[in-house]
Amino acid sequence: MSTNTATVRTTCPRDCYDSCGIVVTLAGGAISNVRGDPEHPVSRGKLCPKCSLGYNGAWRDPAARLTRPLRRAGAKGDGRFEPVAWDDALADIGSRLSAIAAEHGPETILATHYTGTISQLAYGFPMRLVHRLGSTEVDPDTVCNNAGHVALGYVYGDSETGFDPRTARDAACILVWGANPSASGPHVDEHWLRAAPGCVVVVDPIRTETARAADLHLQPFPGTDAALAFSLLHVIRRDGLADTAFLAEHTVGWEELEPLLGPCTPGWGEQATGVPAALIEEAARLYGEGPSLLWLGQGLQRQRTGGNVIRACALLPAVSGNLGLPGTGFLYLNGSASRGIDGDYVTAPHLARSARPDKVSQMHLARRLEDVAASRALLAWNVNIAASNPEQTRLRQALCRDDLFTVVLELFQTDTADLADYVLPAASFLEFDDLVVPYFDLALSAQVKAADPPGEALPNQEIVRRLARALGFDDPELREPDDSVIETLLERSGLGLDFAELAARGTVPLGDEPVIQFAGLSFPTPSGRVELASARAELDGHPRTPLPLGDERPTGDRLRLLSPASPWILNDSFANDAKVLRQAGPATVLLHPADAAERGLADGHEAVLENAAGRLVLRVVVSDVVQPGVAVSHKGRWPKLEPGGATVNALNPGEPTDMGESTSVHSAEVTVSPLCG
Ligand SMILES: Nc1nc2c(c(=O)[nH]1)N[C@H]1C(S)=C(S)[C@@H](COP(=O)(O)OP(=O)(O)OC[C@H]3O[C@@H](n4cnc5c(=O)[nH]c(N)nc54)[C@H](O)[C@@H]3O)O[C@H]1N2
Ligand SMILES: Nc1nc2c(c(=O)[nH]1)N[C@H]1C(S)=C(S)[C@@H](COP(=O)(O)OP(=O)(O)OC[C@H]3O[C@@H](n4cnc5c(=O)[nH]c(N)nc54)[C@H](O)[C@@H]3O)O[C@H]1N2
Ligand SMILES: [Mo]
Question: Which atom of ligand 1 approaches the CA of 649 most closely?
Answer without folding.
Answer: 1
